[in-house]
Every structure is written in C-alpha cells, then in structure tokens.
Amino acid sequence: MIKKSFNIVLFSPDIPGNTGSIGRTCVALDINLILIRPYGFDLSEKSVRRAGLDYWKYVKLKEYENWDHFIEIESPKKEELILFSKTGAKSFYKAPFKESCYLVFGSETKGLPQETLKKFPQNIYQLPMFSEHVRSLNLANAATVASYECLRQLNL
Q1: Number of compact structural domains in the chain
Q2: What's the rounded mean pLDDT across residues 130-144?
Q3: Contact between residue 63 and residue 35 where contact means Cβ atoms under 8 Å apart
Q4: N or C end of the chain: which has fewer CB within 10 A?
Q5: DSSP 3-state of 64
C-alpha cells in the first residue's frame, strides 16, 4: 500500500468531538493531525477521546502554539497549503492536492483568521453548499470529505 503523507491542520478548534472524529479519520487514512492553539477545550477531555474512540492513541498528532510556529517548523511550500473557507471562490474539486499538502481548516465558530486568508488568497477553496439555509458544514464532515477527495485525486 502506498504511504500517504498529507496532513489535516485544525487552526484553533473549538469543539472536542469534532477534533476526536477528525483524529479517527486521520488514523483510518494514516495521515497526520496538526493542531494549532489556542483550543476551545483540553485535549484530555473525555469528549475528544469518546469521538476518537479507542483509536485516539494511534493519532499521529503534532501541536503548535500558533500559526507562525506551525509555518516555522513544518516549512510548507505555499502551494502545499490548501485552506478551506466558506468564502473561497474556488471549488475544492480544483485544489492542487499533493501527497505533501496541508488541508487547513479554521475553528468551528470563527473559521480561519482574516490575516491568514489575506496571506494566501490563491490557496482558498470551498466545499459546495447550495442551500441558503446552511451557514456551514460540520468541521469533522468537511475535513473527512476533503481528505477523501485528496486521496481520490492522488489515485491512492
């Protein structure tokens, strides 16, 4: 089996259950989960573990104090950052997924910070939503959908 090396990045996640569910997806796909502080919860909370079930211990987890710390240590190329926002003008189906990419999601309540979006305007993608009655998708669902689209495009 081909080794996948892309990453899911959560910037300041608020809801522990979503983080746990995304961790489970990361274990299933054997990819990294990167968390950028601050969090709206403590990683030791039962709700994180409950959503991740008994898989949480297998999550390949990296934590960073802030966005700059993440950029400094990971040193991603600009084209490896794929930012997700409901304000994105391009469909995620057109994202330039690579095995080394970082699928970056903002917090459930605030999304990605404006300064981050302004630094990388060409890297912003959105998942389609056709109803005016829905403000956003659940973070865990969005991260999972994006991960499987990345796999599909990489033919893995």
Answers
A1: 1
A2: 94
A3: yes
A4: N
A5: strand
